[in-house]
Amino acid sequence: MCAKKNEEKENPKLVDLKRKRKRHLAYSYKSYDQSKSTERKVDQMISN
After folding, report:
1. For helices 2-10 and 12-47, what crossing angle results, to 10°?
2. SS3 sequence, 1-45?
3. Is the C-alpha dihedral spanning 5, 8, 14, 20 positive or negative?
4. Could you tell me the pTM of the whole model?
5. How far apart are CA 46 and CA 27, in angstroms?
6. For residue 47, what is the DSSP state?
7. CA atoms of 4 and 26, how far apart (whole Å)
8. How far is it, in rounded angstroms, from Cα 3 to Cα 47?
9. pLDDT band per the 50, 70, 90 thresholds, residue 22
10. Is the dihedral of CA 23, 4, 7, 9 positive or negative?
């Protein structure tokens, strides 16, 4: 907790960038996961 507060005091813009990057990574990973699951469904349909 202390480290985060110190970071915000140092450079709020940098901290904001880090947060946005984390959010973006999580979002892209989620969409990647969804595309993988749809691929699997298509594979199952083809095999059946």
Report:
1. 120
2. CHHHHHHHHHCHHHHHHHHHHHHHHHHHHHHHHHHHHHHHHHHHH
3. positive
4. 0.34
5. 29
6. H
7. 20
8. 52
9. confident
10. positive
CA–CA separation, 42 and 45 (whole Å): 5
Q: Which two tokens stand for residue 40?
A: 């699997």
Please tell me the distance from the alpha carbon of residue 3 to that of residue 33, in angstroms, as a whole number: 32
Tokens of 32: 């990647």
Entry field: residues in the chain: 48
> Which amino acid, one-letter code, is at 1?
M
Token pair, residue 45, equals 């349909």
